[in-house]
Amino acid sequence: MEAIEVENLVKKYGDFEAVRGVSFSVKKGEIFAFLGPNGAGKTTTVHVLTTLLKPTAGKAVVAGHDVVEEPMAVRRKIGIVFQDPSVDRELTAYENMLIHGRIYGLSGNELREKIERLLRFVELWEFRDRQVKFFSGGMQRRLEIARSLLHEPEVLFLDEPTIGLDPQTRAHIWDYIRAMKEEHNMTIFLTTHYMDEAEGLADRIAIIDHGRIIAEGTAEELKRLVGNEVVYLKLEGREELRCLKGDFIRGCKVLPDGRVRFDVENAAEALPRLFELASGSGVRILEVTYHRPTLNDVFLHLTGREIREDGGEQNVMRMIMRSRRR
Ligand SMILES: Nc1ncnc2c1ncn2[C@@H]1O[C@H](COP(=O)(O)OP(=O)(O)OP(=O)(O)O)[C@@H](O)[C@H]1O
Asked: N or C: which end of the chain has fewer CB within 10 A?
């Protein structure tokens, strides 16, 4: 069954089309990532799918309900972790959980047990009575995740879940996300501009740019769009023998620095075969390097631009500015 189905979704702000006809579907139990640079339309799409914004055109069905026709039914079945912090900083972690649970009609022992289980899950149980304003950014994000799980959503939306966090905290949050999928078969839709996050977490990735999906597939499928993997060998031996011949070698070029570049389908599989060919031809291998395309190469290949890593910093600055304004 599809947990999310989106057809030709369009969202305009005035005359500006932020989402320009996107279509995709996400299967139940799948982690699906929207990967794209700042301003690509990721947050806008999340806001439409979570019923916070009405689409200008197109159709979106989440957890079996149309986002325009049955917004309340959608809301009951989804959890959201926003890009900007939304927990109450004056309250304790426990109080934040309690209020959120009550909004969803939970109470008594059931609510208390869930809060304990979830705060333990995100390793915040011992800090439950501390006001959130004394939490680090990572602790706040973990609390937001715990809170979003209180009503056992079928589909969880995470908008840039690790933006601005240090590498160790990011790794922790990735573990929680994987555990939610594995232990609860939860469908997770996440947006990110971090390629390692999309690659490390998502079963499938849609690359979004200027409001359009420009490619979709598993990380491996996307990388194949770029074409070959490349092995560079520094060889010692007769020059005319350096372009080793083999049916798995798609191209070979001697570079000005003396290294030889081999285009192959799969570098890991090609390496031992290149070693064999070299020793058979009496050529000695002095140095080996290889390059497998990254998702950045895919983005570059498709758009001619890079997904800029420093976009994260811009976002962090924006978050700081926004929280100062509050
Ligand atoms: N309320 C709004 N009014 C006008 N334009 C908007 C509004 N919200 C977003 N936009 C514009 O729509 C485009 C898409 O924004 P969106 O926030 O969806 O992108 P994003 O991919 O999530 O990027 P980011 O991670 O920076 O939020 C951007 O050009 C943005 O400036």
From this structure: C
Q: Is the CB of 210 under 6 A from ligand 1?
A: no
> What does the pLDDT read at residue 326?
43
The reply to whether CATH 2.60.40 applies to domain 228-292 is: no
Distance CA 63, CA 111 (A): 24
* Per-residue pLDDT at 104 exceeds 80: yes
> In Å, how far are 159, 222, 245, 269 from 275, measured between CA atoms?
46, 29, 12, 11
Q: Ligand 1: distance of its center to the CA of 40 in Å?
A: 7
Domain 2-218, CATH 2.60.40.10 — does that match?
no
The DSSP-derived string for 293-326 is: --HHHHHHHHHSS---TTHHHHHHHHHHHHHHH-
**Protein residue with its CA nearest to atom 2 in ligand 1:** 13
Domain edges within the chain: 2-218, 228-292
- The residue whose C-alpha atom lies closest to atom 24 belonging to ligand 1 is 38
How far, in Å, is the centroid of ligand 1 from the Cα of 17? 10
Q: Hey, whose CA ends up nearest to atom 8 of ligand 1? A: 44
37 CA: nearest ligand 1 atom: 21
ipTM > 0.90 for the complex: yes
For residue range 225-249, what is the model confidence (pLDDT) as tens digits? 887 888 999 988 777 777 888 899 9
Q: Which residue, chain included where needed, has tokens 């003396």?
A: 258
303-314 pLDDT, tens digit per residue, is 888 776 544 444
Structure tokens, 200? 């490390």
Instruction: Please check the confidence at residue 255 and state whether its pLDDT lies above 50.
Output: yes
